[in-house]
Amino acid sequence: MKLESRHYFEPEFETMPMAEMRELQWQRMVEQLQRAAETPFYRRKLAAAGLDAAKVSRPEDIESWPLTTKDEICRDIEAFPPYGSRLRVAQDRIVDIVETSGTSGQGKEVHVLSRADRTRAFRIEAFGFVWAGLSPGGIVAITLPVAMTAAGNWWIMTLDRLDAMVLRLGNMDVDGKLDYMLRYQPHQLVGTPAYLSRLERAAADRGLAPTEAFPALRSILVSGEAKSPDWAISRSAAWGARIYEQWGCSAGAVTWSCEEGMVDGDRRLRLMHGSPHLTYLEVLDPVTGRHVQDGEYGEVVITPLGTEAAPLARFATGDRARYLEAHHCDCGRPFPGLEAGSVSRFDDMVKVKGVNVWPTAVAKVVEQHPEVIEHSVTVYADSAGREQVRLDAVLAASGPGVASAGLADALRRELRAGVGVTFQVELHDEGQTSVAGDVLQAASGKVRRWRDLRQAAG
Asked: What is the pTM of this model?
């Protein structure tokens, strides 16, 4: 990409030499570790590990610092409500609270922010919107609900500071969203992949072709689930807009596609850049605990740099992703990160008939068939106690219909070859099943495609 076609948000850092960036990042990491060590939470944690924070002075020393887990944070919040013992500022300096999504009550992370932390949140979020071409006065349609989670709140705050106009559509039904988009003609659209597909189908039901109905739309920013290059290319063609991806967590870290988007010209998934001057991003081998090599998969571990209200250090997100060095992208930024479309949850992995099955592997097979617009998977024990796995595939109303035995056979063969497990496959016409609606959890915007009924049956 030519220099004049790049959209810099913080050019000082985006054009910094790699060696200089790594030195700056480590300096800020040391400061953050020392800041964390001031809190009761980390004083206890370091004492239990027999670690002196002052002795972690080189990147080689980082493995000695223990990981922080979601369970630890949740237990600490229960023991020291409502914010936990990571708090290191007076409560009157707290200006924002975000929680992880999920059911109310126990099991939610709580993260509090000071005014300076809010500014940092703006900085890590702004890159993606700017890289995707947003300029002052741009119109952005956000389709996700805005509640106590970070994503919607931080996006609206960020877009306000970028002088954009926001269409807050999250609490409307799908037709209401389309009506507002038709009226105000957004330049950017934000949502989950599943909801983007739902919008596309709803538009088709109204006789609307997105490329004609939304001529101002130039970029679509998705997050929340991994998708294949074929999916991104198909959606880009359907909407006439480039697809960008974000990975993020409420603990205070994000990665974004740059101007190049989610997929390159060779139909390969591109790099989602971190912001190394604001986040220390690690991808660790779950067996050795060491950083994986370039191109390998591991668990994403983050340390938000510069946070002051409730510091985190080496937070294990539970997300599995493929680590990529910065040279994988030709934009020239010294920002390594994660491969687009590669992020899944370690706890999403399901063992079926002794085989480790990743939902992303199943989705990759299904997405090879564009007539399948949604799917769900159920794992269960039959009457004889044998493990079974069933794929329910929803076909577009204009597709070949439930009688397409050839498609069912093809899916069975490809799933067996690609995943290593024999699936039952059932096809459903879009208008005669609730599968698609059951997959997309309307209240939260989350997606739930897998159900494991074996434990319930036992």
From this structure: 0.84
